[in-house]
What does this fold into?
Amino acid sequence: MAKAWFITGSSRGFGFEWADTALERGDHVVATARDVTMLTSLVERYGDAVLPVRLDVTDRVAVHAAVRQAHARFGSLDIVVNNAGYGHFGMVEELDEAELRAQMETNFFGAVWVTQAVLPLMRLQRSGRILQVTSEGGVRAFPGIGAYHASKWALEGLSESLAQEVTAFGIHITNVEPGPYATDWLARGAQHSEPHPEYAEAHAAAAQEFEVGDPRATRDAILRIVDAEKPPLRIFLGKSFTDVAGLYQERLNTWRQWQPVSLAAFG
It folds into this structure.
């Protein structure tokens, strides 16, 4: 049977690729974007199998309306992908309140609003998959994008709690953690704070280049995740494992080194 997907941020990058591969195999997709004209090619190729919906995920009322529209169209919501988001660049001291709140509103609260809107439907179905597109930056951090990391770490924590809360309803949660990919993330979606001169060297050091993956290469991986009987709570996309494993070993070593102090603090 065809599955019904709800994908935010479908106009380009991962969202577009995953919508296309789901439709290509015969599933139905509710593809949301701020600019639905960028979804025209999907509609032309797949017709009624795709429902384009204009959506700003920071608008909680609009999110619930979009989910109702999606359910009315396809009768179920089997796979929900919280992909909408952007990166804000700025040292922590450089961030103003509006910039930080905007980053959290889209990357964190937007995903929460979609998740809350679909959960009642999935509970009734006693099934469902929710994919939270966090990032390698949801489990590690680099200088210069603290606001972005804050939004992704917050979503990771919330989703780990959520996974334990909804397992009895047959709902599975997966934090999808991509490394660097050629998704136009920097060129089209990024925002920047006003740089402070004292951080000139730090900015120069942070402006390193990374090997980037091809987002089209993730298409099969995402299908394998959603089709798995027991999908993972977390999965990297790309080459992140070795570097992150080293960082986690450092954390374990530090906790172990300071364990006597920790235990003494217990009383």
Remarks:
- The longest strand covers residues 171-178.
